[in-house]
Amino acid sequence: MFRFLGKLAAPAISLGLFASCASPAPVPAQADKGATLQAAERPSPVTDAPWLMATASVTDIDRTARFFREIGGYETLWEGALDPREIAALNLPEGASAAGVILAAPGAQHGWVRLVRFDDAGRKEPTRPGARAWDTGCFWSLMVRADGLDSIYDDAVAMGWWTQTPVANLDFGGSVLKVVVFQGPDGLQVQAYERLSPPLPEAFGSFDRISQPFNIMQMTRDREAARLLMEDVLGFGRYWYGPPHVDAQPTDMPLGIPRNLTTTVPYAAGIFEPVQGEFGRMEYIEIDGLEGFDHAPRCHAPNLGWLSVTYPVPDAGAAQAAIAGRGWPIETAATGMTRGPFGDVQVVSIRSPEGAWIEFQGPLLPANE
User: Fold this and answer.
1) Which of 17, 68, 243, 306 would suit a FRET pair with 102, their CA atoms being 20 to 30 Å apart?
2) Coil vs helix vs strand at 83
3) For residues 289 and 147, what is the distance between their CA atoms, to the nearest angstrom?
4) Higher pLDDT residue, 306 or 199?
């Protein structure tokens, strides 16, 4: 959605929708606040690879996993108990434990889904009760592409998932799409896009029904604060950072903004990526004019919902030093642990301005490295 698309009357749900419409391309400079930072001015990226996995806290692993296994054909890469060192790093009570499973779309080398059930860890609350788009804090939805969305919709509803709205048919920026936001057990949300035409880029690869995740979304109070983290601190590239958008005509909008307000309530998106391509994006949406709850204090284990996204790095300690040196606080210092199929690793974590956990995971290096 380059600048001229903001003038179109075609409906849009978010720039995540744009990301499902177009192939990656350099984004022209915008006049928006903070949008003038050029690639040469950004610091070196903390990571140059798509995120490895998104982690969700759930009450019943098998119940939630059905969506990914039965609809998406996801495979189980690992299941077992979490290392006590990871439990300790999450600041959970003594005696807490957790079991988890890692699911992956067939052939996917990243964009995995980790579902975790915490036990004896205290009260579990939803990270985003109600999950309205104008409530800020934590992660709002994981984003996948779809093939046969009407059939997927029926199957998801039959297994107990719900949706924010009916499946929307959209003609947007030269692309014909269907889109819906699924909501499953524990309020977990998965945003699905089916592009009917033109075909997806070959670089995305083939999939059956639902793809591996390619993006994850947060709702933010201040898009510029998110931009500062993603570009000025983490050194990510910009996929999109455009002017606020309103629709020319009342629009059915899967973000849930009431139809009669879609012409007057603007929203602005920022999409950032560690490497140009189809995967590993992180998106922020700021909605101006609808005031909701701020759920940022809820974004922690054992609360229920999407908890974290994990990016790979060659050296977690070096990533920590770079982030701290650029002025961003460290939530959890680089900690050694054994983690699923990754083996012995170190993990450092930070929080976004909305409280969402972003992890950087690297190999456990010898002490002299």
Assistant:
1) 17
2) coil
3) 34
4) 306
Distance CA 332, CA 326 (A): 16
Largest CA distance in the chain: 62
Nearest to 182 by CA among 220, 222, 203, 209: 209
The CA distance from 190 to 131, in Å, is 12
CA atoms within 13 A on the CB side of 364: 10
Pairwise CA distance, residues 9 & 171, whole Å: 10
Q: Residue 243: which residues within 8 A CB-CB, separation 6 or more?
A: 3, 6, 30, 31, 32, 268
74 alpha-carbon distance from chain centroid: 18
Query: Contact at 8 Å (CB) between 171 and 197?
Result: no
CA-based nearest residue to 280, from 5, 1, 38, 50: 50
Expressed in angstroms, the distance from the first to the final Cα of the chain is: 44
pLDDT tens for residues 229-255? 999 999 999 999 989 988 889 988 878
- Kindly give, in sequence order, each residue whose CB lies less than 8 Å from that of residue 8, ignoring residues fewer than 6 positions away: 172, 173, 248
Q: How far apart are CA 168 and CA 183, in angstroms?
A: 15
Query: Residue 249, Cβ neighbours under 10 Å: how many?
Result: 10
Q: How far is CA 308 from the centre of its chain?
A: 9
Name the least confident of 73-82, 119-128, 173-182.
Answer: 173-182
pTM, whole model, 2 decimals? 0.89
pLDDT at 91 over 90: yes
Q: How confident is the model at residue 203 (pLDDT cuts 50, 70, 90)?
A: confident
From CA 229, how far away is CA 278, in angstroms rounded? 21
User: How many angstroms separate the CA atoms of 83 and 338, rounded?
Assistant: 6
CA distance 88 to 333: 12
Is the pLDDT at 32 greater than 90? The verdict is no
Closest by Cα among 68, 63, 57, 71 to 100: 57
Structure tokens at 90: 């999450």
> How many percent of the chain have pLDDT more than 90?
74
What confidence tier does 172 reach under pLDDT thresholds 50, 70, 90? low
